[in-house]
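Quick one, tokens below:
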């Protein structure tokens, strides 16, 4: 098969979209991770196919090999947009530049489909940031790639689990850099973006809890002054624009208060501040040391297209073993379908 060739089983064979059921591109992610088996699993899961028509963007031969490795029949129908064949070996659980190259190509093609309105949104399986680095991909992750490809200047990473919604002031950077990015201007931009996203999700009058950066939210400047110099002024400016932003709130209590329903979303100051809270609630460990369930969705907000993703990594340690949990992928597909319907003005179930 030639690179970039599209198999006969593709989105081109689909009827025109109905408002009640959008069409989503689902990327394979890193082909050496759990992405291929997640795609195979949801291809025949009515919780996914009932929410949207799915087009799987990846390499058909890798899907075929994954099905054989797992001892599964290849799903039929499985609508595939086959992008490129490997130019070097790709093995489950092994980090490689080739796997990084392919996963970047899958994302690039999925974005093209969305920009051409051939799909109504994108759902991504996990990529390996190390593999992207080895392949020379000039972005640290999905979020930055999507922003650059779509020409988006104002964007952010939001995690969603049920009614929990957490947006981050910064994402893929060192903790030292994350602290320097907590500025009045940036916090205000994220609050404006967050308010709009929450309204798009159907929250009529969003209440946003704003986490502090320092212990005790700075304790009146005793443990840091970012709250007084940057976070509070941003909150006051947002409130003057009609946004119900509350805080800064000590980071060790803001998420508990959000869980009680006090806030419709929390603005976290950096990656782990928000991720630890959401994943503690969304991931359920099993007694054997694995995972009983893995929920949660990563949403890139501010884009002109819908994009959601699983809220976990490539899981190289279990890749190809058929034990990867599908809950987060199902959550991502269902949320992307809902967001696509809202954007299209269709009825949301």
């Amino acid at each position: 098969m030639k690179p970039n060739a599209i198999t006969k089983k593709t989105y081109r064979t689909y009827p025109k979209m109905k408002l009640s059921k959008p069409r989503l591109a689902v990327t394979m992610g890193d082909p050496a991770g759990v992405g291929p088996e997640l795609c195979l699993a949801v291809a025949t899961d009515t919780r996914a196919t009932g929410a949207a028509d799915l087009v799987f963007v990846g390499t058909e031969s890798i899907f075929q090999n994954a099905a054989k490795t797992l001892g599964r029949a290849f799903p039929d129908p499985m609508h595939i947009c086959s992008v490129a064949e490997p130019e070097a070996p790709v093995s489950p659980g092994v980090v490689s530049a080739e796997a990084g190259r392919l996963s970047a190509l899958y994302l690039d093609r999925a974005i093209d489909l969305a920009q051409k309105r051939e799909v109504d949104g994108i759902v991504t399986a996990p990529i390996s940031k190390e593999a992207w680095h080895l392949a020379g991909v000039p972005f640290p992750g999905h979020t930055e790639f999507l922003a650059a490809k779509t020409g988006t200047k104002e964007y952010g990473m939001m995690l969603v689990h049920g009614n929990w919604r957490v947006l981050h002031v910064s994402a893929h950077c060192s903790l030292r850099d994350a602290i320097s990015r907590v500025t009045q201007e940036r916090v205000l931009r994220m609050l404006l973006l967050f308010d709009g996203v929450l309204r798009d999700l159907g929250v009529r009058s969003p209440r946003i809890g704003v986490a502090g950066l320092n212990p005790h939210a700075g304790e009146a400047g005793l443990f840091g002054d970012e709250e007084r110099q940057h976070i509070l002024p941003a909150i006051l400016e947002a409130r003057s624009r009609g946004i119900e932003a509350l805080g800064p709130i000590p980071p060790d209590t803001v998420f508990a208060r959000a869980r009680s329903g006090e806030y419709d979303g929390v603005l976290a100051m950096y990656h782990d501040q928000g991720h630890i809270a959401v994943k503690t609630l969304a991931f359920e460990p099993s007694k054997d040391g694995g995972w009983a369930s893995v929920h949660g969705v990563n949403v890139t907000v501010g884009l002109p297209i819908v994009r959601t993703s699983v809220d976990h990594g490539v899981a190289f340690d279990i890749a190809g073993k058929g034990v990867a949990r599908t809950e987060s992928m199902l959550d991502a597909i269902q949320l992307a379908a809902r967001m696509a319907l809202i954007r299209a003005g269709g009825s949301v179930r």
